[in-house]
Amino acid sequence: MDSWKMVKLVLIIIGIVALNIFILSSGFIGVNIGGDSAFQTAFGVTLLFISIVVVLYWSYMLLFKPPLVAPVKTIQTHEDYVAGLNQYKDVTVLKKDIALAQDQLDRIIKKRITLMDILSQRFDPAELSYRKFNMVVYEVEKLFYLNIRGLLNKLSVFDVSEFAKFAAQQQTSKFSSRLIQERNDLYNEYLSYVTGYLGANEEIMLKLDKLMLEISLLGSADYKDVDDMPCMKEIDALIKQTKYYKQ
Fold first, then answer.
1. Are the C-beta atoms of residues 58 and 12 closer than 8 Å to each other?
2. CB atoms within 10 A of CB 88
3. Dihedral angle of Cα 120, 245, 98, 162, to the nearest 10 degrees
4. CB-side exposure of 68: number of CA atoms within 13 Å?
5. In this structure, what are the phi and psi dihedrals at residue 28, rounded to the nearest 5 degrees?
C-alpha cells in the first residue's frame, strides 16, 4: 500500500473529525442533535452523514480504486511505466515477472544516479569524455525503457482477466486437448517475450555495472580515448544492434 495515500487518508479523517468537533461541541458552535431545535438536529445529522460519505469516498479513491493507466503508446515518464506494470502485478502467472520488471525500474534510476555521481567526480561536465559517457548512459537508458514498453505492448494484447484465467484453463476438460494446447502455446509464446525483455534489461544492468567499474579504474588504465574501453565498445554494440538505434 502506498504510504503517502495512507497519510493523506489519515489527514482527511483528522480534518473531518476536527470539523465535527468544532461544529457539534458546545465549547464552539454547539449544534445540538436531539435538542429542541429541529433545524439543529437536521443540520447535525446531515453533517455526520456527509462526513461518513466523504470518508468512505476517499477511502475507496485512495486505497481501492485502480490508478488510471495510460495507453502504452502514450507512456513517457518513469511513473507511467510503473503504473503500466502495476495493472499486472496481481496476475498469478505474471507476478514474478512483473516484480522483476518493477525492481529493474528501481535499479535503473539508482544506477543512473550513481553513474552520474561518479562521472561528476572524475570529469568536468565540459570535458568531451564526460559528454561521451553521459550520451552512452542516456542511450542505454532509452533502450531499457524501450524493452519495458515492448513488454507492456505484449501484455496489452490480452485483457488482464485473460491472464488470470490462463492457469485455471489449463486444467479444464471443457474443450479439446488440441484447442487447449494451442491456447497454452500462444500464451506461453507471449510470456516468453516478457522473459526476453527482462533478460535484455538484466544485460543492460550488467553492462552499466561494468561501466562503473571501468570508470573507477580509469586512472590505472591506458586508454587513448574512452571509446576504446571494453565496456564502452560492448554498450555501443548493444545499442547499434537494436533497430531503433541504427546509425
1. yes
2. 22
3. 160
4. 2
5. -120, -110
17-56 burial, b at 16+ Cβ within 10 Å, e below that, comes to eeebeebbeeeeeebeeeeeeeebeebbeebeeebeeeee
Query: What span, in angstroms and rounded, lies between the C-alpha atoms of 196 and 202?
Result: 10
pLDDT of residue 141: 92
- pLDDT for residue 247: 40
* Residue 3 CB contacts under 8 Å (≥ 6 apart), including other chains: none
- Cα dihedral 124, 127, 133, 134 in deg (nearest 10): 70
Q: What is the pLDDT of residue 223?
A: 57
> Do the Cβ atoms of 58 and 74 come closer than 8 Å?
no
pLDDT exceeds cutoff 50 at 245: no
Query: C-alpha distances in angstroms, 99 versus 55, 86, 102?
Result: 32, 9, 5
Spatial CB neighbours of 154, under 8 Å, sequence gap ≥ 6:
190, 193, 194, 197
**Cα distances (Å, whole numbers) of residue 184 to 91, 178, 181, 197, 218:** 16, 10, 5, 20, 51
86, 89, 94: which is closest to 166 by C-alpha? 94
**Mean pLDDT for the stretch of residues 65-84:** 75
User: Residue 106: is its pLDDT beyond 90?
Assistant: yes
Residue 139 DSSP SS3: helix
Count the Cβ atoms, other than its own, within 10 Å of residue 181. 12
The residue behind cell 550488467 is 206
